[in-house]
Amino acid sequence: MDMQSRILVVDDDPDLRKLIADFLAGHGYQVAAAENAADMRRMIDLHRPDLVILDVMMPGEDGLSAARRLAADPGAPSVIMLSALGSDTDRIIGLEVGADDYLAKPCNPRELLARVRAVLRRRRSNEASESAGGGQQFEFAGWRLDVVRRDLRDPTGIFINLSDGEFTLLKSFVEHPQRVLTRDELLDFARGSNAEVFDRAIDSQISRLRRKLNERSDTELIRTVRNEGYMLLPRVTRL
Fold first, then answer.
1. Which of 91, 162, 164, 183 could form a disulfide with 102 if both were Cys (CB 3.0 to 4.6 A apart)?
2. What is the chain's alpha carbon radius of gyration, rounded to the nearest angstrom?
3. Using one digit for the tens of pLDDT, what is the confidence trace for 144-177?
4. In which element (H, E) is residue 114 found?
5. In this predicted model, which residue has the larger pLDDT, 1 or 153?
6. Domains along the chain with CATH numbers
7. How far apart are CA 164 and CA 167, in angstroms?
8. Which residues touch 195 (CB under 8 Å, ≥6 apart)?
9. Do 212 and 160 form a contact (C-beta atoms < 8 A)?
């Protein structure tokens, strides 16, 4: 399966770029490289990667801006951000702009490999759900989610773009409606039970999802249950 996965490494440091690319290629991935955001976009058009490993601090357009652009494209690859800025705040900002994971430099190559495998595993799981066919449409409070097409429509029929993480969380909520889901459960649904992800990362993803829903809804849809987790409030109908 790894031999079928394509990765694009984007970093302005040529030595680090080559080190990461060679390491991942040695573990069976098809790897391309780019030195900046403009080069990244050309390489995405050329190679159609499944995953981009994206440096934050680059000359010209930085990684945060580049990740934000990618998140706005429904067909974009998944993104793991690499940065010398490794605080919780920096990590949350990376997730806020649409990255699927965030890793501080310097990082252990084995940890990077584990994160790559986890993100690609989740991506394949989402794609498998999409190809599974019938019974994958849900309606709640006038909203409609088509899991097969990854298509979320607000009550007026307008398409709402979701990142991979937001889509996976919303799918978890509609499959378990009107039930409190703990952070551990959501981490399992979203990233796999063995992933090392901070609880606040889930909080950040849910905050982004809730903001998108609240912008087009008059009622509260996702409630925070203090000291327990989160719950999707409306009744859900499987179509």
1. 91
2. 18
3. 999 878 889 999 999 998 877 788 889 999 989 9
4. helix 109-131
5. 153
6. 2-129 (3.40.50.2300), 132-238 (1.10.10.10)
7. 5
8. 118, 187
9. yes
